[in-house]
Amino acid sequence: MISNSIYCSGSYKEIGKQEGRMLAKEISSNVKLFWEKLIQLGYKKENLLKSIIKQEKLFTNAVLEEIEGISKGSNQKFLDLLAYNVYHDLAFPEECTVMMAVGRASSTGSTIFLKNSDKVGSESYVGDNCFKNKEINVLLALNPENGNNIIGVAAAGSTALKMGLNDKGVATGSNIARTKELATKGIEKDTTQLKALDRGFLSRIGLEQSDDAIEAAQVVLPRLMSSPMSTPGNIHFADADRAIIIEGSYHEIAAETIVDKVAARANRFQLLSQLNRDDDLSSICRYTRCMELLNENEGKIDVDKMIEFSMDHVNGPGPNSICRHGDHFLKETSLSSAVMEINRENPEKSKISIALGKPCHAWRDKKANITLSLDSKKKDIPEGFINGEIWKKYYTEEPFVKNV
Question: How far is it, in rounded angstroms, from Cα 25 to Cα 39?
Fold first, then answer.
């Protein structure tokens, strides 16, 4: 998952063209891997493409314009890119940990939000535009002529966000839920009739169209009433005072409002807990440890504390710790992290700190992490975040060991 950085401004179509031109090789690689992964899982490309026109109306005009721009800039087919954006979550689900101290539960009185992004790799992820069998990611900074500024992390060629923050002070992150239904059913292979939504896309339009967490949830929930998430999972939106956590499966939706409290999600449900797999030890261990850390520090949690939590190795280091490690690229392990600090008085001054690579290494070296406010400019982003060298240097499965 090579993490580059791009900064785009103008109309959404112009933004897409800039993305496409700058990341043409990475986008080509990601789209190729996307199709290989879905075919490997038993999906038929012709069926997916036939279903795309039905899914197109689920997207906002801004997103469709951006995908069209990416298509022109990268010389990729529009329908391939549309399929990549619609069904991305089927091929590359986010296996993540989210923690938050909402409102007065933080030391600042405004919400602080953390996400560790965990992913599996694939034997298909090889070549010049891949690294250690991982998908390619970018640090994305969007400055549209009309709309909210957004900074976050995305896959090259995707309009979806893994995690991000807008200039109104709204943060987002999402993760898959490993339910009994997911293990036994999965999505129907005949996708000609499928209507399903990518969590990262929902996170993106929530930030794109909202001034607070409630508005973001109001953007997402009507869509989920007609089309489920492509795989069961959680979507989180948070502003300075509150957070909304949405849990969605194939046939059930639940939402929770968090005010002046701490909360967390691993790859499981808390509201729809009856759907969880009983043998998902990693999610149980991570959620229990998250709540232990959050409850012990409630009212004292700042950015440094959240960074400390993201590097936690209790129950590991391994797949059951918050900072996740593995001995094979097919294991779900931590590949990057972001902490978002929301500024109530001046939302455009809200900050996102991003660590590229294994959290226990990347947060400890100032060369591997960066803090940006929502009014940051391109010149504020060092070259190493643009060419992928930072991520390649700090992605390792070896746990950090303090020199004695």
Answer: 21
- Helices 24-40 and 12-22: crossing angle in degrees, nearest 10, is 90
DSSP 211-248: SSHHHHHHHHHHHHHHS-BSSSEEEEEE-SSEEEEEEE
Contact indicator for 239, 140 with CB cutoff of 8 Å: no
**Of the candidates 62, 92, 198, 203, which has an alpha carbon nearest to the alpha carbon of residue 155?**
92
Do residues 20 and 74 touch, judged by C-beta distance below 8 A?
A: yes
Condensed to tens digits (0 to 9), the pLDDT of residues 186-221 reads 444 444 344 557 888 899 999 999 999 999 999 999
pTM: 0.86
Q: How far apart are CA 162 and CA 171, in angstroms?
A: 11
Cα–Cα distances (Å) from 24 to 70, 72, 75, 150, in that order, read 9, 10, 8, 22
CATH number of 3-394: 3.60.60.10
DSSP, res 273: G
The pLDDT tens digits of the residues spanning 143-190 come to: 888 789 999 888 777 778 889 999 999 999 999 998 987 766 544 444
The candidate with the shortest Cα–Cα distance to 249, out of 161, 177, 160, is: 177
- One-letter amino acid identity for 200? G
Cα three-residue angle 134-89-213, rounded to 5 degrees = 115
